[in-house]
Every structure is written in C-alpha cells, then in structure tokens.
C-alpha cells in the first residue's frame, strides 16, 4: 500500500522545487565550502554519529557519487526536512547547508548558527527555496540535528518564496 506524500512535498513537487541531488552539487561546488568535501575535515572522533535511520531535522553529510577507486566525491551537508517512507530505499528530502554566509543576502537563505546540537564547525546558511531528494545510500553519516522550530521556519520560508514567485511560476500539473 502506497502512502501519500506530505502536503509540503506535494507542494514542492507541484512547483518543480524538488530536485535531484546532482543539481545541488552542480550549483553549489563543494570546493567552495570550508570542508572541501572531505570527510576527514568534518569528523571529530568524539562527534561521529553513524546511523542508517534518518529523521526530520537530522543534519547529514551526503555524497553525490563514489569514484571507481572507492573514494567518496562531492560531499555536502543537508538538513532532512521531510521523509517518504513508502519505498525501499527510504527517500529523504533535504535542504542544502552552506558555509557561505554572504548568501544570507537572499531571502530564501536562513542563518543556522553552530551549536552542540547541530555539531557544525561554522555558522552556516540553509537554502530553503529548493528541496533535494536524497537516498539513504547517498548519506555518509549524520553529524547533528536541528529542532522542530527550525524545520518549521525552513518550511515557512519555502512557502513564502513560492508565494513571492507565483506570478512568474506556474504549477507543473
């Protein structure tokens, strides 16, 4: 039996705002981030959180692909904003996290200050105008979490961006 998508995901799909993960890596080159896409730049032994079950609010380190020699390439942080538990593997839907604070000039980008709960190394930006589909096998590990209030803030910002662009955007249906 197939479950329905959340209203949030239905809206995101309707307006073409759910993108494949590759689009995030193309638009936001990992080489411009403080971690340069390297796992060893992110992990601190005492903060490692390995998990294959992800929840809304989790901050995860996601890979786009694995090189033929087995090395992981193009890693980025995402915050899980919604889930689709209807298929195997489980699909996660996330918003990109960037350490480029100059991107705060865009209304869709929200500040995420580093703290002990999210385990970020730097204050960062959550890009709330696009949702990316992330499969479990693309997640390298979980580093932390944001609270439900932040998730609601990101969803509200997503809807506000849709509203502000409705004159130029039409649903895909």
In words, what does this structure look like?
With 173 residues, the chain is of the alpha+beta class. The chain has one domain (7-164): Roll (SH3 type barrels). It is 21% helix and 31% strand. The protein has 4 helices and 8 strands; from the N terminus they run H-E-H-H-E-E-E-E-E-E-E-H. The protein has helices at 7-14, 21-27, 39-42, 148-164, and strands spanning 18-20, 58-66, 72-84, 91-98, 109-112, 124-127, 131-135, 139-145. Strands 1, 2, 3, 4, 5, 6, 7 and 8 form an 8-stranded mixed β-sheet that branches. Strand 2 and strand 3 form a beta hairpin. The model has no long low-confidence stretch (mean pLDDT 80).
Summarize the structure.
This protein has 173 residues and is α+β, with helices and mostly antiparallel strands. It has one domain: Roll (SH3 type barrels). The protein has four helices and eight strands; from the N terminus they run H-E-H-H-E-E-E-E-E-E-E-H.
Q: Please give the largest β-sheet.
A: 8 strands, mixed
Order of helices and strands: HEHHEEEEEEEH
What CATH calls the topology is SH3 type barrels
Roughly what fraction of the amino acids lie in strands?
25-35%
